Amino acid sequence: MRSVIPVALAAALATSLFALAGCSSNAPAPEASASASTSAAANPLGPDANPADNPDNAPHVSVVEPVIKLPAAPGSPGVLYFTIQQDAGKPNTLAAVHVDGVGRAEMHESKTENGVTSMDSVSSVEFSQDKPAEFKPGGYHVMLFDVEKSLKPGTQTEVTFTLANGDKVSTFAQIEDAGGSGMMGNM
Ligand SMILES: [Cu+2]
Predict the structure, then answer these.
(1) pTM exceeds 0.90
(2) How far does residue 105's CA lie from ligand 1's centre (Å)?
């Protein structure tokens, strides 16, 4: 699933976002951005999440395009979408997600049966080298409860993914408005 072009795009996007988020407390240190932009091995997770620089990150596991959609209305939940993948090793299980600035993050799965869409919480989601786990509208997603006002569109916040074996992957998620989709669109 990995190719050069999306990685390059992600790196360029991350760099431009960091530039925009210069005033935010969530913005990474300038030297982190500078070192990443000159690195040949640009990381889709962003400069702060380069596994080579972070011995705590799970080996061979990466998170692609993490995006938070803010609540459509105050008090409503937001949602986090991403793809978690690995390029080597035994299959893994995603067991928990933590989002800075969010009171509670729950993994959910949406299902449509007989034309009725519903969602349930799930305790874990497996993924492997052959089969990344996609969290996207209509399937798996992470529901975000008690989203703090400090999370603004156009900024980023840190997200930590915990695997069943205790390994973790930390990265920064882009924060976006809910747009016109509303809460049902966030499922
Ligand atoms: Cu949900």
Answers:
(1) no
(2) 10
Contact between residue 147 and residue 49 where contact means Cβ atoms under 8 Å apart: no
E strand or H helix that includes residue 15: helix 4-20
Could you give the CA distance from residue 166 to residue 116 in angstroms, rounded to a whole number? 36
Ligand 1 midpoint to CA 123 (Å): 13
The answer to whether the CB of 29 falls within 8 A of the CB of 46 is no
Tokens in use for 108? Answer: 């959910």
DSSP secondary structure code for residue 48 in this structure: G
Tens digit of pLDDT for each residue in 129-146? 999 999 999 999 999 999
Q: What is the 3-state secondary structure (H, E, C) of 90-154?
A: CCEEEEEEEECCEEEEEEEEEEEECCEEEEEECCCEEECCCCCEEECCCCEEEEEEEECCCCCCC
CA of 183 to the centre of ligand 1 (A): 9
* CATH class as words, domain 4-185: mainly beta
Write the burial class of residue 81 (CB in 10 Å: 0-12 exposed, 13-18 middle, 19+ buried).
buried
pLDDT digits (tens, 9 = 90+) for 22-46: 333 344 444 444 333 333 344 444 5
CA dist 94 and 145 (Å) reads 19
